[in-house]
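pinging the channel bc i need a second pair of eyes. not urgent but kinda urgent?? the chain im working w is below, pasted from the shared doc
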Amino acid sequence: MLIFYRMKKVVVGLSGGVDSSVAAFLLKEQGYEVIGLFMKNWHDDSVTISEECPWLEDSNDALIVAEKLGIPFQTVDLSIEYKERIVDYMFNEYEKGRTPNPDVLCNREIKFDVFLKIALQLGADYVATGHYCRKASILNPDGSETFRLLAGADTNKDQSYFLCQLSQEQLAKTLFPIGELQKPEVRKIAAENALVTAEKKDSQGLCFIGKVRLPEFLQQKLQPKKGIIVEVPSDVSQYQRVLPNFEDKETELAFHAQKPIYEPTDGKVVGEHQGAHYFTKGQRKGLDVGGTKEPLFVIETDVVDNVIYTGQGKSHPGLYRRTLFVKNEELHWVRPDLALKIDQNMQVRARIRYRQVLESATLYKVDSGLYVDFENMQSAIMEGQFVAWYVEDELIGSGVIS
């Protein structure tokens, strides 16, 4: 009796870069039926993302790679979803004085939601991307699987942070073909197989869009509004405050998580700006204030009164905090089976931005959310950014910083 086996079908998000090109090549070599899809995420003339049009070149390169590999290829227009879920969200967050991470959102909302659904409609068993991360699984006693999101083998390129909002359902349908490889190995595979993207530079800027000059981008929707820049000395009274005797751990964590509240009288006016919503904590460029011994850094923005507070030098205490808070509604567990219950805690390593070295921290679950208490002070903890936490090399959860 003849038994026919259907090849597993994988839709690869071909971005026009070397990583996704090699991902598609490896999957075909492994015997999958591979389809290449290019995501077109922008053509809104009312908002100019970039003077360049990188997507045209990227789309062409993706097509050339697909032809070389002998796989079907098409372009899908996700610009409406991208504008609604990513760009509008960015404007709203900056207007509130928060700092969003569009790359994390793009993965959660576009690549592994809208794009994944399109792939499944095409009969795909999986979607695959060129991310430097790995996937593993645990077989449960009932026969079900729990999926694990692991850091990429190339620690220089590990992109697990960008996938920190993925769910078990999304991971179940996802493959990361280059996760075990080093970047030079990926380029070598591309060159040996004459892929046009072999020497192409890595993309920069917004997910699947390209470079963005953020101030000019924001000014297209957020109107300029002149305000003052205040320089706050490093010895103001709130930095010298004596720690109280805390009644309990939650009170202590809440104390360390609160950000300082400044008044213009806390320092001196050193310049003017065109809108507090254009700036973010830790920012140095764009202040246009000279004459200081050390460079000025933004230590806080007040979008209500339209004031930017700054401090001299990278060691200014206003840049640092040890503890942050994530509200329940912004809390996400990649591994729901490891989620903390109220009053439980967990030792982890965490980061608050891509490429940051993982730092030792303790998670504390309280009724209203989760505290992340770092062993060392952290620079420029920004509301709206994502914090992600790991156990060894596995990313198990994340959340939006309040």
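so DSSP finds eight helices and 18 strands in the chain. and Residues 102-121 form the longest helix (20 residues). — does that match what u expected or am i reading it wrong
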